[in-house]
């Protein structure tokens, strides 16, 4: 993957200027100057540089090249799970008027700042043109649309965040129900303690900062329940309230059962601990399924995937979604990319490797794995809440403030402390900002 971009916009702009300077003639030939659009390419920005993420991107490119052979794909992205570093880098490019033609972001509140700044364009016209309004579930369209009914991205997939990945053999060896299902956080903590007493240092595998925020989100959900969890984002749940204090205490307790080297691990290495049996559990979005597949693990036997503790009946939603940048010269190529993203072929092939479910509802479930069939059912039947850690629930600035507070708290817990009142106050002031 390219770490620096070949600036499509700059390149085309230069060609255009040269064309003007030579008064409409290609230098020295007398032939008409090439139109700025004669070479089409599309600069696509993602952070999908490893494992299933990179495989998924390659699949999208293959479908794109088949559907639009006249346009070259330019990989314009960066590296880093969860996209945290990507977001910062992207932000500086957008501020410097150097946008990629299209970038992946999370559908929902994360797009709001980009919309307010005028960095991305309304693409609802493309939904009409390619019939997406008819094939995306109505509930999804509602999650994608802003208050004025505009839509600013085309989702490639829907991921579920509240999934716990479990090594059933480890549980069985310790006389614990191998299903890994926990109706409550307390029941989960009781088994963490049992595993710890049996000599397992870190029964719950955890990774770096953003994965800690991911775990935090699922503890809030499992402790508060779907309604009060959603209330954190629309202001109906008080961040200073006693239920939140209890959820933060739960988080602190759970952190006590995680691995000390967590800051050094991205999500895939935390999953590896479960595969290796060093930990019994990891909570991660369902892109994690690829880690098990790549290690030839059998779903249902070598590993199971269940709702994170206390969150059965809820689908914690996020969607990777591609935008149309403002201020680019070749909008048609970017729109062609978005057309591919919404197409049936891309949605099937991409999600087969990415572990997510398609955004389109007109796809035969039999195309997908057992895990994905479960996720499709849950998305259709369960209560849907929006992911905080992955941009669906809150804008970037709010998530950054939560991440800072959670990172501080994690460090304190690791050092044997963990000031819950200070953490709660920081979260409340992040919400009020
Ligand atoms: C994205 C996923 C990605 C994961 C890990 C999430 O925010 O939505 O597509 O696989 O981060 O990088």
From TrEMBL:
- One of the Pfam families matching this protein, by short name: SBP_bac_8
SUPFAM superfamilies (alphabetical): Periplasmic binding protein-like II (SSF53850)
InterPro entries assigned to the protein according to its UniProt record, in alphabetical order: Bact_solute-bd_prot1 (IPR050490), SBP (IPR006059)
Question: Signal peptide span per the entry?
Answer: 1-26
* Keywords (A to Z) from UniProt: Signal, Transport
Location relative to the cell: Cell envelope
Question: What Gene Ontology cellular-component terms does the record carry?
Answer: cell envelope
Major location category of this protein? other
Specify the superkingdom.
Bacteria
User: What functional role does this protein have?
Assistant: Part of a binding-protein-dependent transport system for a sugar.
Membership in a protein family: Belongs to the bacterial solute-binding protein 1 family.
Q: What is this protein called?
A: Probable sugar-binding periplasmic protein
Ranked from the top, the taxonomy reads: Bacteria, Bacillati, Actinomycetota, Actinomycetes, Micrococcales
